[in-house]
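User: For a reading group we're discussing how well predicted structures match intuition. Take CPBP family intramembrane glutamic endopeptidase. Before you show the prediction, I'll give you the sequence so everyone sees exactly what went in.
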Amino acid sequence: MFIKQGIKSENKFWKYIVGSLLIIVASFLGQAPLLVAILYDSFVNGKAYPSENDDVMRFFEPNLTLFLILISFVFTMFGIFFVVRYLHHQTLLSITTSRAKIDWKRVFFSFSIWALFTIISTLGFYLSNPADFVINFKPIPFAILGLIGTVLIPIQTSTEEYIFRGYLMQGFANLAKNKWFPLIMTSVIFGAMHLSNPEVTKMGNIILVYYIGTGLMLGIITLMDDGMELALGFHAANNLVSALLVTSDWSAFQTHSIFKDISQPSAGLDVIFPVVIIYPILLFIFSKKYNWTNWKEKLTGKIE
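Assistant: Thanks. Here is the predicted 3D structure of CPBP family intramembrane glutamic endopeptidase, as structure tokens, for the group to look at:
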């Protein structure tokens, strides 16, 4: 069982607190290239030092900003590997899946189904509300975005999955010796992690329903499938395809995407709809394809 692979007598919960702090340190170290670049432009070229997060996002050309932000996740991934290997004496595979090796067919199936949905829904929004969008496509910047995104966005999304659906999922299982507590805790923390996103400022805290709901869905498919493969594919598709298709002045990533959303952001059915309609449909598709059974035990049962 995937969630039990981290439960060992020597894996006390305090180790997960120490490990989380070390991973945060690695993340801060990964932000050094962005900080150095900003300081250089400020002191050498006389550019005004950014005072707010929004200013940081617009300080450089979008592709350069995206690159510098995503680089930090490479450092964080190394931090996760170090903590898992040397603090917990586990392999990275043990916090990835219960299978003998990563099932890449699962990763690509999940990626494909969510990428297809994202493309169709985005085109649907564009065709039904063309006044809310402008064509933002520029061939060379878009090609550079495609290269940066294809290489680094899966690292970013995988890092988040390894932290929440892998490391912390097993960590909270060590503490609670059940499955529902890790599922709830990782979903809430995942949602809270997005509090600093500009979307929250524009739309209000109601959008946390979407973020926490997404974390809950990713946790469910991880527990039901005994591995993170489906979560890895979904998260990579969600961030990569979105970055390539649509940007806005209030989104977390400013990119040279195909479209730019110029509408006034508001939180309504578009926040609730994926959580209560789309995600259950996705769970149904996965459950039929991979023959999931015994939902209550896998999501809420005790861990012996």
